[in-house]
Design a protein that fits this description.
554 residues; Amino acid/polyamine transporter I; two-stranded parallel ribbon; mainly alpha
Amino acid sequence: MEIRSPETAGPDCRGHLILIKSKRIQPEQKNTSSVITTQIANEPRILNRECGLFEVWALGIVIVVGGDFFSWNEGLSYGFGSVLISTFLIGTGYAALVLCTSETFSGLPFSGGAYGVVRCTFGFFPGFLIGCSEAIEYIAYVSIAAFSLVSLIGMMVTLDAVTFHLLLLSFYVVTALIHIFGNIFFWKFTTFLGVLTLLIVLIYCFGTLKWTSVKHIGVVNTQWFVGGARGFFSCLPFPSWYFIGVEALTFSSELTKSPKKNIPRAAVACLITLAFTGVFVLFVASSAPQGEEQLSQQGYPLNTGFSLIAGCSYQIASIFSIPAIFATAFGFVFAYSRLLCGLSESGLVPSIFSWKSSTGTPYAAIIIGCLVSYAICLLIVVFPKTKKCIAQLCFLSGFITYACQSAAYIWIKKNFRTIDCTFKSPLGIYGAFYSFTIFLLAAVSVSFFQSDGVVALPCLLVIWVLFSLYYFPVVKKKQRLSPEEQKSVFVVHTIRFNYKRSRRNTRPGKKGWISGTTALIRSVRPITCHFSKKECSGTVSRESSFKIFNRSLP
């Protein structure tokens, strides 16, 4: 199959996906199918590319580093040894994942998240479920972070119910306004937040060093491993707080200069920074005077160190954690708004999510996502025990998404070796296998080894069933290839189409490589590219072309 660049197609063909049927089949051409002419969309789009490598790195810090300030310390109840090994496994799993996704993105720069790659490798329905799972992960995380932020303020100042809700609502209003109307200010504010939060973490780590001692580790529990193998598997997901969200940097591709180069570099640099801060915080916080048993019961594990540095009470020290927790919730709003907009442009969710302002900001996705997240916060307020369930649902959705991304990388490496990637993962397929295994084990841990029982898995299955009831009667009929998919991953769709058709066209009774090769040649033959001005008169809409392409799949 030959795919030419849009410039060779003539002025009338640019920016369209073209499917043209050949003339009536002659008797001597009875084995030849209709000719399908394809062109990857390259339509110009008005984008404000204001951010470079440093801004994308700062965005990753904003999204992720807030996880150092809350919830990760609960894993210390299973022993410092379990947390240490889990941190190594989860950290290296994220490293392998980031390397794989960076390579994939450098060849297929798609800004719609994991669902686009999964959609073109494993099918449209799995891609739909993965896209919805990723949206659940991000929105649930924003709810947890927003609730923790207001609760942190409540530790410093006594809040009644009305004030609590007003502060919670104020967070969503301020965040939505900055995202919608920020434009250039958004990136300046994000860069400032990233540098500020990283500086606060470093102040904590270096400032608390003089009070730390290795003797404090295990001062209450003499065992480094509590609960045996089951305790270790229960502890496995908790270090993910150090890294969750680092994969969301690809959503900034439309706003980044040279995204195929800058985003992979920023992702790797961000991962190195997060790994350093996460391990540093783990050792400093665990070797602080209180010991890990006491630390595991604290809602905000860094407050003790800040109180030692500033000479203030534990409650007043909460002020140092506010910027980071605000930043992580703020960053995840950017992630889910871009994801929902991409899903909408592909016809997987209602079109309202793709409504954009004049600067290209998906304001409808931001507002609706904030409303859903605020509703989840209200659920946590009414039923406080649901906070852990929502956190587990967030991590389970994320781990399944990561595993599917790793599997998609393996498929692309084996079936699409000619892809031109500006970044190469040094681990290759082996790293993808490792990442897939780690996150599969983490998903099993969240599903079956948590202290509050099996909650997340049934909830996710129920959500998948509800999404499936929406997909088959509604989405399946109107789904399409978005402009971003046409520009980046349509080639992979075509290769998958060829592979499926080659299997379907293999004649029964014939075995061996000859029949398989013949079937593959016959399946590739109908898909040709003839970009002449005469053929451009047969241009059809993207929706119609997607229906033709979708019906051709078995």
